[in-house]
């Protein structure tokens, strides 16, 4: 069974990938379930300030809730500036009226996402670590970041998080297409593993 990635790990990866600036010290929005002692405190505040996320309600962020594929793609789309594209999607499970439809359309048009099948995106499915890292890697390439192991490995790391060998993410179920993104992102230390 694939492990799912939590919201705060995704935001931490986004902070490392998208921001070279200092993180906010005071929150733009106060969440009752995010405190200054949480390792993801700055990442959450940064993502809220940049309007990448807003939490599940006015005062609840839900850091331990699984992140869906729709949520993850929406985070990337918002980080890219909410671009609008003219692209015909064939995903039968993405309704045009859904909050993530434009995000999926954009990501599919650039090859950042493919889908669980030719006609299914899997919007409500929890995003796995493998899927998240692959999408991050494709997004980084699309945005013009140096995605070689040397380029990504030279990015600043957050030393509060231990290094995680690629083999811990890859396991037996890792598909061939995701090996390079997982290895590169493991060198960056974007999403610490949590035993659950």
Explain this structure.
It is a single chain. The chain is mainly alpha-helical and 196 residues long. Helix content is 39%, strand content 0%. It has 8 helices and no strands. α3 runs parallel beside α5 and α5 crosses α8. It is globular, with a radius of gyration of 16 Å.
Summarize the structure in short.
This protein is mainly α.
Task: State the main characteristics.
single chain; 196 residues; mainly alpha; 39% helix; disordered C terminus
Question: DSSP strand (E) fraction?
Answer: under 5%
| Number of contiguous helices | 8
Using DSSP, what is the number of strands?
A: 0
The helicity comes to 25-40%
Indicate the overall shape: globular
Low-confidence stretches: 20-24, 155-179, 181-196
The N- to C-terminal Cα distance equals 13 Å
Mean pLDDT reading? 75
Structural class, from secondary structure content? mainly alpha
What about the largest sheet?
A: none
**Quaternary structure of the protein:** single chain
Rg, rounded, reads 16 Å
Order of helices and strands: HHHHHHHH
Break the fold down into its secondary structure elements and pairings.
Layout: H1 7-18, H2 41-49, H3 69-79, H4 101-110, H5 129-142, H6 149-153, H7 166-170, H8 179-188
Helix pairs in contact: 1-2, 1-3, 3-4, 3-5, 5-8
């Amino acid at each position: 069974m694939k492990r799912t990635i939590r919201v705060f790990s995704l935001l931490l990866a986004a902070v490392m990938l998208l921001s070279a600036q200092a993180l906010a010290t005071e929150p733009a929005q106060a969440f009752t379930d995010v405190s200054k002692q949480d390792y993801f405190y700055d990442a959450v505040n940064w993502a809220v300030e940049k309007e990448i996320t807003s939490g599940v309600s006015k005062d609840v962020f839900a850091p331990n809730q699984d992140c869906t594929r729709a949520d993850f793609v929406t985070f990337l789309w918002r980080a890219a500036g909410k671009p609008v594209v003219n692209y015909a999607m064939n995903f039968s499970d993405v309704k045009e009226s859904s909050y993530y439809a434009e995000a999926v359309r954009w990501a599919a048009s650039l090859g950042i996402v493919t889908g669980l099948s030719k006609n299914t995106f899997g919007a409500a499915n929890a995003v796995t670590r493998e899927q998240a890292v692959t999408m991050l890697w494709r997004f980084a390439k699309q945005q013009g970041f140096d995605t070689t192991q040397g380029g990504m490995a030279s990015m600043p790391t957050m030393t509060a998080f231990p290094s995680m060998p690629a083999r811990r993410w890859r396991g037996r179920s890792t598909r061939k297409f995701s090996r390079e993104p997982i290895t590169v992102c493991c060198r960056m230390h974007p999403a610490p593993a949590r035993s659950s």
